[in-house]
Amino acid sequence: MEFFHTSLAGLINFALYFACSLVLVVIFKFIYSAITPHDEWQLVKQQNVSAAIGFVGAQIGFALALGSAISNSTHILDFLLWGVIALIAQLLAFAVVRFLFLPQVSERITNNEISAGIILGGISVAVGILNAACLTY
Question: Residues 10-22: what's their mean pLDDT?
């Protein structure tokens, strides 16, 4: 019985961090969708593979950073602070792609050009990996 008590001692913290993570992922989805000129969800519903690749890359990149923030945080407020910072970094990744590397990225994604979705998704994951590494403090 003590084994279960010891093993489940962290269940409340798990639930709290997991719930906060899911909330942050949903917030990220809405903010990311709001700042992109193209409507990811509408495009995905229309079978636009490029939009799906770009959006999933952004979500994975953000989740990687959140995972690092969880692993390295000292308490829930510390995690939430760094989660917001990770969110901002991922949004900046889109801005870098849009304004520096591929200015017509939104139009190309709307036109279902797979290469644009791959570039956006790939850079988003790369930024997420760097973001996660920088969150190890």
Answer: 93
